[in-house]
Amino acid sequence: MRIAFIGGGTMGEAIVKCLLNKNIAMPANIIVSDVRQSRRELLSREYGVSTLADNRKAIEGADLIILAVKPQDLAQAMEEIKKPAPQQVVLSIIAGASLSTLQHGLKHPGIIRAMPNMPGQIGEGITVWTATTEVSPKQREMAQSVLGALGEQIYVADEKYLDMATALSGSGPAYVFLFIEALIDAGVHIGLPRNIAEKLVMQTIVGSTHTVQKTNKHPAELRSMVTSPGGTTAEALLQLEKGNFRSLLLEAVAAAYNKAKHLSVSSSSMGEG
Ligand SMILES: NC(=O)c1ccc[n+]([C@@H]2O[C@H](COP(=O)([O-])OP(=O)(O)OC[C@H]3O[C@@H](n4cnc5c(N)ncnc54)[C@H](OP(=O)(O)O)[C@@H]3O)[C@@H](O)[C@H]2O)c1
Fold first, then answer.
1. N- or C-end of the chain: fewer Cβ atoms within 10 A?
2. Contact 88, 59 (CB under 8 A)
3. Are residues 119 and 125 in contact, defined by beta-carbon separation less than 8 angstroms?
């Protein structure tokens, strides 16, 4: 499998790194095109992949073309690589770029749209992806193994789930980082040394996540197992309920979803014509 990257920034590099770490591709089969010389130098030095600054040349002979530029650079990148060869498939990780925007802008039927998340940078991410009907089973398998290099991956038949995933797992790491930060600060506030508070919070989050996964119990059941009648946890949960913690989260995710839908709509005219 020959893979061409259009854009070798944070996410492009993360995918290259995971593909090589998991032996899904060899450096000789990866080419990265980036407008920035410093990125090209770093990627060829660190990973031994070929690099160039010419998008059109970069996609020659590639089976899979990965679009990893920022949304504002998409129109130009599409202009540069439009009408790829019929047997090539384009995989975009660009937030808000719909299948139809990509099909029109690239004048190409075979498109995969994926929403990875930030922990993919260390192979611990989760990616939700979909594809146009023109993408063959073999190309789907290729996408599955490439996206699987970033961690877990879930295929969805309906594109509408991509905007929802953007709000939940795409933005999700930011919610979790904020929660971690606030909980550590709370530990410090009541008098714990910061390094101990950090360790307590991090392992509490990792351990709680693994408990949900391993016991297969509903989180509400696990929560009630930690909540003794009239105890300390019940006291803390009362404060969280008073502050509308649960509905605040619902509203935050709904706001991110509305924004994702709005971005998808406003970018959908980008590739027309
Ligand atoms: N970061 C995340 O956690 C995350 C998660 C999910 C999805 N995504 C999506 O991933 C995409 C890439 O994000 P990123 O954080 O990797 O961005 P990034 O670090 O800015 O990387 C993009 C790279 O592409 C270069 N570039 C710009 N225009 C180009 C062109 N026409 N041809 C070739 N290269 C070009 C940029 O150079 P310049 O800097 O000089 O412009 C930059 O080096 C975004 O669309 C984002 O929505 C990101």
1. C
2. yes
3. yes
Long-range contacts of 128-131 (CB under 8 A, 24+ apart): 128/153, 128/154, 128/156, 128/161, 128/162, 128/165, 128/169, 129/91, 129/153, 129/154, 129/155, 129/156, 129/162, 130/99, 130/155, 130/156, 130/157, 130/158, 130/159, 130/161, 130/162, 131/99, 131/155
Instruction: Please determine, for residue 115, whether its predicted confidence score (pLDDT) is greater than 80.
Output: yes
Tell me what pLDDT residue 134 has.
97
Question: Is 65 a pocket residue for ligand 1 (Cβ < 6 Å)?
Answer: no
pTM strictly above 0.85: yes
Query: Look-up: residue for tokens 């530990």?
Result: 187
Residue ranges of the domains in the chain? 3-156, 172-260
Asked whether 69 lines ligand 1 (CB < 6 A), one says yes
Round to whole Å and give the CA distance between 235 and 238: 5
Class of domain 172-260: mainly alpha
Ligand 1 atom closest to Cα of residue 80: 31
Indicate if the pLDDT at residue 271 is higher than 70: no
Report residue 74's pLDDT band, with 50, 70 and 90 as the boundaries. very high
Ligand 1 touching residue 37 (CB < 6 A): no
Question: What would the CATH number be for the domain defined by 3-156?
Answer: 3.40.50.720
